[in-house]
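Below is how a single chain appears once it has passed through the pipeline. First comes the sequence as given, then the structure the pipeline wrote out for it. We keep one example in the README because the format questions we get most often are answered faster by looking than by reading.
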Amino acid sequence: MPHQESLTIQAEISAARFLELDEMLSEIGRKRTMHDLIPFPDLGGVHFARILLMPQALDIHGQTISASILYLCEVDAPARAHIAELVDKATAGLDRLFAGCDGYRVDSAADRIAWLHAHTLPTAAYYVNTVGRGLTQIQQEALLREAIEDFLDRDRPRLALMPALDIRAAVQEHVKTRPDLSFAQSPPDGPSLGWRLGEALHQVGVPALTLALAPLAAAAAPLWAALLRWYETHDVPHQQRPDPQSLRELSRGEDFAAQSPLTAIGFVKPGWFRQVTLTGALAALDYGVRHLYNRGSLTGVRTIHFARWLLLDDGRRALFASNYDGSLESYMDEFIDKVAWGLNAVFSNGLGYPRTRWLVGDGATDEQAFKNYLRTHQLRTHVWYSAYENLTTHNIETNARIRAGLLGQSSPAEAQAWLALL
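Resulting structure:
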């Protein structure tokens, strides 16, 4: 199975074009006719995708930042293959989205591919709930669970009289008769050897480099700590509350499936100190989500399918995007309860964030201030696609355990526990 990659494409648009796209994409999102624009199910390995617009803005120095259109996707690697497939199967849709953008040419597929690559942004940190669990595996294991449950329901009177081990054996025999379930006779493949070697090198190399630079970091730490506290005591948190009309518009894109998308953007505080601190925090976050929190839990938060952090507009703004289970309110509560320190380490470098103490203290623990901050920085998702919109992260993990439990020998207690998953 491949690993999963994020793709972010950003292109500037004029004010007039913004209005045209806003109307078009809003209608597509409202009618959920996104496949007429881009046939996502026909594109290989797309887990989630979204299209949204960012209006023109003034940065903290009064400089204009043009309006832009964003395309975000979580896809089985490699992302460059997804770009080629987009151009091959969604040419008309891409032209509707990006026509009029600077340099966008429709002369050939090669021109479109080159343009999309040129407008792709790097991701600073990327969280994947379970690395290496590809779209095909998720869909196959959902099919397997459905087939087993149908079998158990159909033969329930006979099976109810049997011990757990015999029921499991009956399920195994049934699965063997289904050619479409032949994949369940073996465990899923992991990511490629080359990718795993690269990740292992990164896992070892980053601490080694950090250790080598430790003397310099130790020498600079007192100055950094003093500056941090000075900036924190002089920060001015925003007191802005979310506009009711904006909340209604945002809520239209939430809670119509088992998952919802969240996109938020904010200005980075001015000055080199915050740029350096944010860069360091994102680097630490990237290491953590790649090597420590890549098996179903982000420091205890289990409801996130994917999340990414990246910098826009030459580092003047930072963007966060995620796909999560449940309501936004419960999502924010879970973050505050379990990982407020992590939120603070990154988001406290954003203008107007609730005041922190020593980078990781306070901040998000002011629950209402944090929720107001997030809501007032949230962007409306115009078009959103999920390849498995009825599956939560819990469902996906359970389905994987059901498949794993079919293989090999089992004790009576293990068979009973396996049946309890169904």
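The longest helix spans residues 214-234.

See the next section for the split statistics.
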